[in-house]
User: Fold these one by one.
Assistant:
Number 1:
Amino acid sequence: MRRLEAAVFFVLAVVGGSVGSAWYFRQAPVQTDRPAVAAIVAEELAKLPKPAPGVDTTQVKSIVTDMLAAEDARNKQNSVMTVASLDPKLLDPMIDSYLANNPKILQRMNDALDKQNQADADVKNKRLIAANADAIFNDPDKIVIGNPKGDVTLVEMFDYNCSFCRGALPDLATLISEDKNLRVVLKEFPILSAGSVDAARVAVQVAKTNADYWTFHQALFTSRGEVTGDTALDEAKTLGLNPDTLKAGMQAQSVSADLQKSFDLANALSVSGTPTYIIGDKIIPGAVPIDDLRTAIANMRACGSAISCPAKAG
């Protein structure tokens, strides 16, 4: 029983006897705030016959007043102790000591934070991909390799001077070779140098011809040194294209517009590096192990989502 309830019970026992107090508690729950206690005491004392044999009402009021004052003092002390316990000067050393003696907590916190951040990023990326789906997967000027009618589409945004893109090229070739139902969309995203931009301007034009773009693409990534516009023109020439015509068209408005679409898309998706892969509802930044891409492709086939559907075992 709380202290204020005890005070009420005491008063009722004094003025009405133990039977009367028990009856009161059964009939009406006691309101245990300070004004309610004082009101109950006043009400019960007012009911006493005058004079009340054996009952000193002044003494009863004094006892209850003392009990309420003591309760106020305890509440005030508890409040002060609570504030003191939150004082950074007291708390900070305690926290530091606890974490120093339990360092694995920091790792668990970091892991939990990473997990939450990834979950938040997945939700955000899913929304951004849905809002830009046509630009990502169905751009009429897209470059498609693999199976144009494949049931799963993997998009790669790349730069010809990106060393990570160069390193990831064999994995992309392997995926295309082993998965005859994979559609790959390549998006020029030249962000590393002026040479990258010039090479992309040539590549956009090559993609609009009947030349083998995949062969051209692989040749640029396996060339030595920086990839420039001249590198791209030389490779285009080996495919039977006229380098002078391509060079003259490098600054064409249509070429600039194609590249601008990639930059606009990257801005919409908050993509800032290469390679960046997009598949289903997932954005995969950086060169990742080929098995990660296989898993995303398997998830897409299993349930149409690269994030929420686990790949089938085996």
Number 2:
Amino acid sequence: MALSELRSVFQRGMSPLVEFLVRNGVSPNAITTFGTFATVVGGGFYARGHIHLAGWIVGLSALCDMLDGQVARRSGRSSVFGAFYDSTLDRVADGAVLGGLAIFFARNGVHHEIPNYMSTPMVSVILLGMIGSFLTSYTRARAEGLGIDAQVGILQRPERIVLLSAPQAFFGLAFGGWVLMAICALLTVTAWITVVQRVAFVARVTADETRSLKPVQRSSGSGEIEAYEAGGRRADGVVLTAERLVRATEDLEPRLADVAAPAEPVTRRAEAGPTGFDRAR
């Protein structure tokens, strides 16, 4: 079963909880805030070497990450600020978890949980993974700002949260920490592959749009270019003059109607209200 299908099944299973939160008026932003707080706490446990516990806590934050959007849609409280707030706190959560792992590997000289010769390389891997995870989100957000839906790549945020929580919750530091180190390396590599995929996707889309535009062919002679621009200015002037004539005709029609019917009783005109001709006087 694909991860997206598993996510859909899990969301359907959470429907009773979503309905409970909606009935009790729980704010989607409150769920987002609580999930981020849980992630920051999980990052702290990662830094202290409590890998099992940290994995479960980060998994709880993933649950909140799925609940806030569903509650917002069910309760009709979706908003632009809510989307912005959720995206911003997601970056805080990613930084807290990866920062906690970086501290854990950097302090290996104290707790000796992994082979000593892997301490510095793993700090470097985590830092690269942090940059890659931020770029994964940034490239999509920047593409959406350009009107392009760049929701492509092998590692989006739900998959990243699964990698940062589930293996650690079940395996911890099994096999001398090699399971954790393999997961961190996989996270970093897939994050950068996703960044490259999204950059390539945006490059391809923008290149297609550029080719679809017909460029204006200009000859080397400046006289032809100037004649073309002068013709364009004259055409613009004709259109502007026509628009002014139409507006003047519309303003003149009520006045001509009054003049064309001089025998109309004054009382009838008074009942109908002042005409454009009366106002002009």
Number 3:
Amino acid sequence: MSALLEVDHVSKIFSMGGLLSRRMVHAVDDVSFTIAAESPEIFTIIGESGSGKTTLARMILGLEHPSEGQIRFRGEPVSIRLGAAARLKFMANVQPVFQNPFEAFNPLKQVDRYLSSTARRFLKTTSQADVDRAMDEALVKVGLTLAEVRGRFPHELSGGQLQRVAIARALIPNPPLLITDEPVSMVDASLRMAIVNLLKSLRDNFGVSVIYITHDLATAYYISDRLIIMQRGKVVEMGPARVVLDHPEHPYSRLLKASVLSAEDAGAGKLDPAAELVTTSNDLLHKTTSRLEPRGDGRQVRVYPAA
């Protein structure tokens, strides 16, 4: 089975502090996974703020260069040093969808102008009929039409509509891979499932693989085929989504699940996760030796051999 995307022992190290207090921080530490070309899937990256998930996404998009390891798309290395033609070809195949749709669009610019410029850039056409057709086809995939958005400014659309327009814009060049960074965190709770179901539809009906980046275990459980859980740059657990989230094994994975407030807990004052999980999870951060160890159920879990 050929690979659509290969992330091969990738690390990103940043230098922090001043001249006399400089230290090296692993924002991403030895991460590996593969997405197959023949089997579209939703691959989720879960982690809290500072876990490295967005830095990893930026490296996949070629916006950051790995300090170690390599990222390949269809066998070709992804690099920030691609020439203009190679960059355009890459971005036609790997498109981003960002967290805040209101920041993705200039409030003084009509949203269909973004769609039009994207169509002209990637489809290399000057025909207005071809541009309109490409815009409408992309919008229909996300449950909108060109007639609904033509001439409208961002403030005239709801957050959910605007995020769907952002996804439609990314779909215009028909990419096989979308990188979605917290795509539902800035829309109302009532609209989140509409966006999540849209991503599932893109996988099922149009063969688009999605890297879904989130800290929300509820949507991750619903949407994901496979996932990785990251803590301070390291993958602590990875595997089939239901296997990992139904019965998490690593203390940090268990802590994330224990931190989700359930309907049964509402009003009961059970806001604090198990104290021992917090302590254990924090203690493991200081371990200098660890490895991912496979389990019989398809997952891999980070273990910490005794020194």
